[in-house]
Amino acid sequence: MSLNDFFSPVDHNKISPQSGFQPGQLGAQAIIYSGEFPELSKENFDIALFGVLDDRNAVNNQGCALGPDYVREKLYSLYEGTANVRIADLGNIKAGHTVSDTYIAVKTVVAELVKENILPVIIGGGQDLTYAQYMAYEELEQKADLVVIDPKFDLDGTTDVSTIETKSDAYLNKIFLHQPNYLFNFSNIGYQTYYVNQDSLRVMEQLLFDVNRLGDFYGRIPVAEPIIRNANILSFDISAIRSSDAGGNANANPNGFYGEEACQLCRYAGMSDKLSSFGLYEFNPAFDRNGQTAMLLAQMIWYLVDGYYQRKSDFPLQPKSQYLIYRATLSDNTHELVFVKSKKSDRWWMQVPYPTSHSGNDRYHLVPCRYDDYQTAVNGEMPDLWWRTYQKLV
């Protein structure tokens, strides 16, 4: 089966103005599947966008399957930035006979694009599609770090993987309990405590996962950058954006990120050399007023693309001449911590040593961090991020 068997083409009449796209608009630059399916290779494209027309497991948000073309209409009216973009629009993955069929299609497409070193940008559909996005890495036999931007933890109390139903409010159970396990780390950005069961918080702590309250980012959006830089997979639930800025969701919230903050988060994602798939979920045009949410999502994708073309290629850390090494000794002299700073981007990483029982050739694991973590170490204290990462490696 070829990839185009999964897709229905884009109806140009739905997304383009009567006079056609103007030179420089993304609609004139992208290769859009409306007749012949694009030939996918890194030589031709850097980014591949596609929609998923399935909302059967989107809890309390039926209608979000209709979202992709509304976002396309707004996205392709925007003008490209300073870079010459190479985007393929593959159309929409048709809903399968069962939801599992849709997951298989998404998994297969994402895996093939990642193999080609093309960044998939998924417009859902329900956020349960994150499970299919993650399953692509099992097919690739590749360990992955997952970052989810969401006001809730999409978990329930089920621990029997055979009985878990993958829904938009419980798909994390399937990911956490899946065997074989290809998840190295999970991070949440922007949870709101009144939506979170305290038992779920304790589960996150026991699993040494990184969860970050919405209030941690007020006036401090750069705090999110190293968290996002550590992601292979990013899943963005638009209910993480306040309803005044993105009301196109049956589960919209009065509190959340501002629209410009959401755009900044997407730019961080695009700039990350490690990020290899991006999903934007739960947009429901039935609740969108004057196309505002569709336009915000289009702008978020624009910033993702702009960030992609600002990548510095400073991960992995080669050549070594482009980096500065900093060392700090804890006050009890038990550890010397090593930090690395890129001369290209001024971004920081920590070296966390593998335990002696580690069978690989690498001596340490690199984790993105902030200058504040280095300052903590200089003051003789162990950064929490270093300790949690080391515990995962043991």
TrEMBL record:
<dbReference type="GO" id="GO:0046872">
    <property type="term" value="F:metal ion binding"/>
</dbReference>
<keyword id="KW-0378">Hydrolase</keyword>
<dbReference type="InterPro" id="IPR023696">
    <property type="entry name" value="Ureohydrolase_dom_sf"/>
</dbReference>
<comment type="similarity">
    <text>Belongs to the arginase family.</text>
</comment>
<dbReference type="InterPro" id="IPR006035">
    <property type="entry name" value="Ureohydrolase"/>
</dbReference>
<dbReference type="GO" id="GO:0033389">
    <property type="term" value="P:putrescine biosynthetic process from arginine, via agmatine"/>
</dbReference>
<protein>
    <submittedName>
        <fullName>Arginase</fullName>
    </submittedName>
</protein>
<dbReference type="Pfam" id="PF00491">
    <property type="entry name" value="Arginase"/>
</dbReference>
<keyword id="KW-0479">Metal-binding</keyword>
<dbReference type="GO" id="GO:0008783">
    <property type="term" value="F:agmatinase activity"/>
</dbReference>
